[in-house]
UniProtKB/TrEMBL annotation:
Highest taxon above the source species: Bacteria
Descriptive protein name: Peptidase M20 dimerisation domain-containing protein
UniProt keyword list: Hydrolase, Metal-binding, Zinc
Stored InterPro entries: Bact_exopeptidase_dim_dom, Peptidase_M20, Peptidase_M20_dimer, Peptidase_M20A
The UniProt record lists the keyword Transmembrane: no
Residue span(s) of domain Peptidase M20 dimerisation: 168-280
Family label: Belongs to the peptidase M20A family.
Cofactor(s) required, per the database record: Zn(2+)
UniProt-listed Gene3D superfamilies: 3.30.70.360, Zn peptidases (3.40.630.10)
Any one GO molecular function term: metal ion binding
Length: 372
């Protein structure tokens, strides 16, 4: 099965994060000898049956720290206006179009081809290929791998789309749900004093103004590598009727913070300001994803740069403003992001990836495993 055929097959599986990924996981597992594969089944937060697949290729020297390649099998839900069937790979000018083509079944295809090659061409050290579920959901798959393996001093490459650039850092993410409670009353009996004290939406308005102040403070932080940290109100929900004072309002804020920042201090600042508005406010963590930064003179970065110059003809380094599981897997060792396709196409209708880019990254991964 060549790269284009493999990618087309991966796209044909409906592995939206709102569904089980069993079919694509079992397909990936079937491509390898059974003694090399471990399949782990678990439940998602929503009760879905999900599956992680791990492939281990033993190296010449198992005493060396392992090299780990990571890719997720799930996609975001279908959105936007697709002009083609999202689950039937369409080809146009060397590009393969389909749901998850760039994020990140193109990267998964490159990892599969690399692992198959290493079966016959033994790598320098033990190589693990981790295909996780739920990355686009609650991230349970990645956390399952963390609990399953206790790697130390490992080198990790995440095959997310990077335009073949070596991504050495990313911002962290903190998502908080803020809940204000009030007291219901018919609007005809609620004056301004009542609204200020009991209207849950009024409390949320005050909260947004305080969030904007913290946002301005964060936006003023300068960093040589990264754009400023951000803080945004992303969701708000409150009220039950047009003639009833709302007794509850929920809002979600998202903060993207720098590797050098104390995000817990930012969280506490938000909590303090919310409690000034209402001491009974509830602030709950929805997601904390750590930032990541690897020094440019790190041995993994040097090895990837060397491979990139040989295979691609140049080595470009950059950082992400978004978040990937590098923030999870970094506890195993040095973690960077390096994969085929353009990140800007991720989560868009009609996303696509170049077969040539995938094949280039196959050569990069194979070279890194054999020589890095």
């Amino acid at each position: 099965m060549n790269t284009k055929e493999l990618l087309s097959k991966l796209i044909s599986f409906d592995s939206q994060c709102t569904k089980s990924n069993k079919d694509i996981a079992m397909f990936i597992a079937s491509l390898f000898p059974k003694d090399l594969v471990t399949v782990g089944k678990f439940k998602s937060k929503q009760g879905l049956d999900l599956y992680n697949v791990a492939v281990k290729i033993s190296g010449e020297n198992s005493n060396l720290p392992p090299l780990i390649f990571s890719g997720h099998t799930d996609t975001v839900p279908i959105s936007g206006n697709w002009e083609t069937d999202p689950f039937v790979a369409a080809e146009e000018a060397g590009m393969i179009i389909g749901l998850g083509a760039v994020d990140m079944k193109g990267g998964v295809a490159a990892l599969i081809k690399t692992a198959l090659d290493l079966i016959d061409n033994q790598p320098q050290r033990d190589c693990y290929f981790l295909f996780d579920a739920d990355e686009e959901g609650d991230g349970y798959g990645g956390q399952r791998f963390i609990n399953q393996y206790q790697f130390k001093n490992a080198d990790i490459v995440i095959a997310e789309p990077t335009d073949k650039k070596i991504i050495i850092g990313q911002k962290g993410v903190m998502e908080l749900k803020i809940t204000f409670n009030g007291k219901e009353q018919h609007v005809s009996r609620a004056d301004q004093f009542y609204n200020e004290k009991y209207n849950a939406i009024y409390k949320a308005v005050k909260a947004i103004n305080e969030i904007k102040i913290i946002e301005r403070q964060l936006n003023a932080i300068e960093n040589k590598r990264f754009s400023p940290p951000t803080l945004t109100v992303c969701q708000i929900n409150g009220g039950t009727g047009v003639n009833i004072i709302p007794s509850k309002t929920e809002m979600v804020v998202s903060c993207r913070f720098l590797p050098t920042q104390d995000f817990l201090a930012v969280k506490q600042q938000i909590i303090n300001q919310m409690k000034n508005i209402d001491p009974q406010v509830a602030v709950d963590e929805l997601l904390i994803g750590e930032a990541n930064l690897v020094n440019s003179d790190n041995q993994l970065v040097i090895a990837c740069s060397r491979v990139s110059r040989v295979v691609i003809g140049q080595a470009s380094m950059d950082v992400f403003t978004g978040w990937t599981q590098a923030g999870v897997y970094k506890q195993w060792g040095n973690c960077l992001i390096w994969g085929p396709g353009g990140l800007k196409l991720a989560h868009t209708a009609g996303e696509y990836v170049s077969v040539a880019d995938i094949e280039i990254m196959e050569k990069c991964y194979q070279s890194l495993a054999k020589n890095g």
